Amino acid sequence: MSLQRSPKGISDEDKRILRLFKIIMSEGHHALLLVYEWGYLKKHSGTSLIEHLKDKGMSKQCMKKYFDTTMRETMSEDPSGETYDVSLLFACIMYGCEGLASSGSPDWRGDRDDKLEGLCTYVKNFRNSLTHGKSIKDEKALKEQSLVLTSKLESLILLAASDTYYNQSQEEVDKKIAEMKTNIDKIMDAPLGYTETIDFMEAIKKLKEEQKKIVTEMGNTFLPEHYKALSRVDPASFITGKDRLEVKQIFTRLEVIHEKKAAPHKEEEEIDYRDLLTIKSDEKEDREPTIVVVEGDAGAGKTTLSKLVLNDWADFKTSETKEPVQFHSLDTYELVLFAEGRNKFISNFASLLKFLMPHAEGKLDDNGLVKAVLGMKTLLILDGLDELNAESESLITEILGTHVPASENRLHLLITTRPHMVDELPLIGIHSHPMVHLRLKGISPDKWEEFVEKVHITMIENGLSKQNTKHLVEYVRRSRGQMGEHYRLPLNLTLLTYLWAADPSRVNSVTTVTELYKALLKLIILRLVERLKKQSNLHKSYKSKTELKQLCKQFLQTLCKACLQTLQLGYVQLSNDSVDELRNRCEDLNLKFEEMTGPFLNVEKEWTAYGYTFELFVPHKSIMEFYAARSFLYPLKTSFHDEPDKEVIIRNLVQQLLKKDPENDDLSPFENVFIHLGGLLAHKKDPTILEKCAKELIYIFEKIKMLESKWLEFITECKCNSFIAELVAQDKIHKLRVRDGHTLAALALLPHLLPQTPVEIILETEVQYVPMLEELHEEVAKRPCNLEVLLKHQWKNPACGVSDQHLTPVLNKAAKCQLLRVTGYLEEVINLPDTVRKLRLSFIDDAHANKLIEQIKNHDMILEYLGIHVMEEVCGDIPEPLPMISSLWISRNNSEDLDRVVKVVKSLCPPEKKYNGLFFPGSIFTYAEVKNLVKMLAESNIKIEEKGELKITCQALTLPQHRELIHITKNKLNGVLHCMEEGLMW
User: Fold this and answer.
1) Residues near 961 by beta carbon (within 8 Å), at least 6 away in sequence
2) Which of 573, 588, 797, 845 has the most neighbouring CB atoms within 10 Å?
3) For 762-884, where are the alpha helices, taking DSSP H only?
């Protein structure tokens, strides 16, 4: 069996594989053709197969090419198989032949020798396996493989010809088998020529190209359409029963924080969400990360962000004009895949690919499909790493351990997770790959009005609301100062909007997240009782609304228990046992199961190896945590009634309901449950119940090492209960950071904190809407503590009023506090104490600028940082520059304003002519304008400090343009250029 002439690079093993390849391409394919002809003719009596395949997902062009009645002629003319595809012939058998199992049946497994379906699968897979690493070590192995293959093909023909299937004559069958064996013997004994060896190599290359082409076709057609359907978000659709809303219609910029590992010169930095795929894992080496991890609390927008990426890629793939992608570099990915951590039915990569690209399954075997994908630049989005189960954990382990290395840096991952899962990332191997860690904070307060406006307008367009959008926006503007950090979460703003759409009067008393969920639950029960009352009258059972409401509450008790059990398992879909409990409860109460679960739960289709199954899901994990917290209320009430003086009731219930030991087990996944529980107890008529549970709740929070910011959230949820605040103040708060919505909680805490405890007040909202801000400043002024006050809204928007009057208590000479940092719009700086080290001011015109500059020069403050926001009316007619300045924010009117801008930058610049940062909020530059700006600044001898930044908002740039602007900024100004949204410049 020696080669007449061996081409360079062909090994002995390649030659052995070539012989098997010739066998399968010739005799294997002809065996499948026999099955096709016998089964197809029996089923259709010669009619066109095309008509029977229209609904199988294949294009007409593809069907006409491969599935018409010329298949026999095609194969006869080309026994090598180069002009047709065995996988398509296999699909032809699957869908067109008589008496075969449906697609997805176990009969099609390649190890089912007793089934014709299984033998056909074996032949298809054998061909593909030869091109992807099948080992034939020696001549003995070659002989064994040929015998096995011959036996399989013989069994295939015999089974197809049997009475069970297509009932062919014994004479015909014997003839076909004899011909097959003769041909195989010839292939095994004939010498291999140089030309056919080259042809073999070309055939393998062509096969791989065909496989990639099949996957690419899926990526350009089926996947984008699938993702557009998938890219609808709205966790409140369960309230209306209507379709969800399109993600891009309601999306508002999310705050994304880049952790310090990749930015060592900073603690952390806020980034443009659109840059999340371009952040470098190693800035020095300019290394592209393999994995981007986005961490965020429940409801922070992780799933929304994932779906926005999917939608962006889908739009790019289906756009005829190839509009620029929203997420930078997303257009470089040939393929984008999507998986959910909660999915219990996909445990390996091949299954995921077949689920996402079902029409590829009939054309490629598992190995060929995986190899084709790994040969393409691919982004896999895994949403909800914190919801992993045994199956999805197996999937991610396989991907990280096997496929990421095998892809040679072509396969990248974007992973979302909740914070408690971050510490477990090394356990699943994520840290063994170049990684970037981002934190999703939600929607910044200055964008809340924009978000609810978008959601509500879209609801009106979809017939989901008749309320006034302007009134909603005005309500959010007025209430923003007392709504708290939890309204950064898109989920909660969405639910607030739905509550407004249903009944604006229900929104007026809502400030905490527990109040929001309670109000929504009341609305759900009210509507459910109305429906049940109508049915009661219809069926003449005439139950009163009071009776029906009581039945709903009994059902709700079982639902809340099911949510707690589901949360323990780490899922959002209810287990079979929980569903059975709910079903039995409905039977006991004589209620319809679908009628009762519909208002509280979503029904979603889940893919399994045997087709689709229907699963019950809690609409969102945050809502599930609220329901889980309610599951404590009934046993808690009973416990207090039976043992009113017992001090460990909560801990006993944790052991009883969660089967966990509060002393030793990790309860961090239940942190929000216990915060909600505090909120629910605070709304009880008897306040002593909360106070009796307070020590135990705080003990649990201490054990899970709750963040300081969460303590203020807990106090807020508990309606700023003074007893709770006193307990929290004991060694929990080392620096009091007061943000929007936390002023009342801070006032409750201050009397119990150590007098020297530092205080930082950071307010994004209009100060006129912040409750009891003056009282807070008065209380802080009495304390010998370090103080920082950032009135950011007035600093950014001087038209909203001056800050001096709001700072009066802490500027008073009798104040005991040490004021270290101030941000705001000040009319005077002469009243600032000389303790101020960091200062950010606004200049509204030249006169105002000159007055403040003169006062700063004559002040005893020793400034470490000075940031100035220059308004449009400042023209730069300034006699003397500032003694020092760190960063400059310049608002501008139009594209003809560059001369003024450069004049201002130059006139304010300190003697060394260097800035740490130059920022241009409120303006959108063109590519040409940026080049001109950099040139003009350089001609004025303006420089930027090492690692300093020039931040602009720019019109859509091509990648070469962006790179050029970065280069000239570095070359002429020594600075780093960032193109970003205005919100990131402050």
Assistant:
1) 927
2) 573
3) 773-781, 792-796, 808-811, 846-857
